[in-house]
Amino acid sequence: MKSPASFKKAAEWALPHWTRGQAGRETPQDLFRVLYSGWLLAFTLKVLGSAWDVSWHFKWLRDDLAPPHLLNSAGTALALALTVIHGYTGYGVDKAALRLIQWGTGIFLVAVPLDLINHRVNGLDITSWSPSHIMLYVGTFFMIAGVIRGWFMGAPPGRERTVVLGAFLAFFLENVHFPEQHQEYGILSIGAWDNHATYAEPILLQFAADQLGRPVDRTTMTGFALPVPDVLYPVYAVVAGLSVLVVARLLIGRFGAATLVAAAYVGVRMVAWPLLTFTGFPPSAVPFFLIVGGLLVDVAFLVRMPAARAVLGSIGATAAAYGALVAQSAIMGQVYGALKGQEGLLGAPPLATSSAVWAGFGLLAAWLAVEWIAAKRKPQPIQAPAAIATATT
User: Which residues form a coiled coil (predicted)?
Assistant: First the structure.
C-alpha cells in the first residue's frame, strides 16, 4: 500500500499538468507514458472481466453485480477518467484521436443502461450478438481506435513504441472477435451435454428453456449455445478478424507484426482457459486459426511489393496494388482450411464451407478499404521525438 507521502508526491507531479488545452498540444514524455500506461491497465481490466463474463454466463444466471461485470466496470471507470483528462488538458492526443475516444466512450456509456433495460425486458438475452451488446463492442471499437491513433502519433520511435502499439492492436482484435466467443463456448457446452457432463447450472438451463418455450433438452441447449447461423462465425472471423491483422501489419510496418498480434490474443485465451476451467467454469474453443491468418497476412505483404513492382511499368501502381490484393485475398482462403482442421482436432464452431465465397469477397472489400484509407491519410506525429525530450528537461 502506498504511503501518504507517495500520494503527495504523485499529486505534486500531476497537478501542474491539470491545465485546459487544445488536443494536439505538446505533451511531456513522462506524462504521455503515464496516460497510455493507464489505457493499458484499463483495457487489461476490461479484457479480464469480459473473458470471465462469457464463461460466467454459460454457467450461472445473469447478475448485474456479478464479479466479471465489476472487473469490467473498473476498467470502464478508468477509461472514462482518462477520456476526461485527454478532453480537458488536450495532452497525448490529436483532435481525431480525441474524437474517437470521446465518441467511443459515449456510445459505450449509452449502451450500458440500454443493455440493462434489455435484460429487464427480455430476460437472459442468450446471444452476444444482440443490439445492445453490439453497441458495447462498437463503443469499445472507437475507444481503442482513438487510443491506437494517439499512441501511434505521439510515441517516439523505438522498441517501446512498437511493443505498446502491438498490445493495443491485440486489445483491438480481442474486442472485434469478442462476440464470436458465444459460439466458441457454445460448441463445447453442446459437447458436454452430449457426454452427460453439463456445464450450466440447472437454474440457467431451465431459464433458457422457459424463454424458448421448450423442455430442457438438446434442442434447448443448441438454441442457447448456438443461437446464430453457422455461416456467421467463419465469415465474421475472416472479414473482421483478418482486417484487424491487416491494420496491424500496416501500422507496425514489419514482417511478423500480424502474426504476433494474433498470437498475443490467442495466448491470452490460452492462459484464461485453464484459469477458468480449473475453477469450475466452462471452457471454450480457442481460435488458433487466427495465428495462421496472421502469418498469411504477413506473407501476403511480403510478396505484394515485388509483385507490384514487377508490373508497375505496364499497368500502373494502383492496378498493381489491387491485383496483389486479389492474390492476398485468395491466400486468405487457406484460413478456412485451418479452421476446418481445428474443428476436427481441437474443437471449433460448425464450419459452413459454402460461406468461403462470401468471406473472400468481404475480406477483399475490407482489405481494399484499409489500403485506401492508409494511402489517403498519412498521419504525422503530434510532435517530433526531440520536442518530447525537450519538454521533460
Answer: none
pLDDT band at 364 (very low <50, low <70, confident <90, very high): confident
pTM of the entire predicted model: 0.87
Under 8 Å between Cβ of 144 and 43: yes
User: Which residues in 263-284 are b (16+ Cβ under 10 Å) and which e?
Assistant: bbbbebbeebbeebeeeebbbb
The whole-angstrom separation of Cα 383 and Cα 237 is 37
Q: Answer with the residue of higher pLDDT: 384 or 370.
A: 370
User: Cβ contacts of residue 278 below 8 Å, gap of 6+?
Assistant: none
Residue 60 maps to a domain: yes
Rg (CA), the chain: 23
Q: How far apart are CA 347 and CA 277, in angstroms?
A: 16
Residues 124-172: tens digit of each pLDDT: 556 788 888 899 999 999 999 999 999 999 999 999 999 999 999 999 9
Q: Compute CA distances 145 → 23, 52, 86, whole Å.
A: 16, 24, 15
Centroid of chain to Cα 229: 22
DSSP string, 343-385: HHHT--S---GGGHHHHHHHHHHHHHHHHHHHHH-----SS-H
Residue type present at position 366: A
Residue 376 pLDDT greater than 90, yes or no: no
Structural domain count of the chain: 1
Asked if the structure places residue 194 within a domain, the reply is yes
| 384 phi and psi angles, rounded to 5 deg | -70, 155
pLDDT cut 90: percent of the chain above it: 38
Report d(CA 191, CA 200) in Å as an integer. 12
- Is the CB of residue 104 less than 8 Å from the CB of residue 142? yes
Q: Rounded distance, CA 90 to CA 145, Å? A: 17
Q: How far is 131 from 356, CA to CA, in rounded Å?
A: 26
pLDDT at residue 372 greater than cutoff 90: no
pLDDT of residue 319: 54
SS3 7: helix
In a domain, 174, yes or no: yes
Range of the domain at 372: 22-391
Rounded Cα distance, 393 and 389, in Å: 7
Taking alpha carbons only, the member of 303, 322, 169 closest to residue 246 is: 169
Q: Is residue 272 part of a domain?
A: yes
